[in-house]
Amino acid sequence: MAFISKKKLVYTIKDALRKYLVNQGREVELPITYNELHRFNNAIPFIDNKGKDTLWETVLHSQSEMIHVHEALKKIYALLKSSGDVSVIEHLYIDRIDLCTYGNTKPFRIRIVNKINDLFDYFYIKTADASRVYGLEIEHLISPNKINFLVSGATLVEEHIQGIPGDEFINKNLKDPQLNIMRLAKEFIKFNERCLVSLLGDMHSSNFVVEIIPDFDEIHYRIRAIDFDQQAYESRTAIYMPQYFKQNNPIIKLGMKNLAPELEMQYQKEERSLIANRLKSKISGPAIRNLVKAMMQDKIAPMKNVKSLREDLSRLYNDKEFLACQNMGEILYTNLKFVFKYPIRHKYSFVNL
Question: Of 56, 133, 288, 311, which is the most buried if we count CB atoms within 10 A?
Answer without folding.
Answer: 133
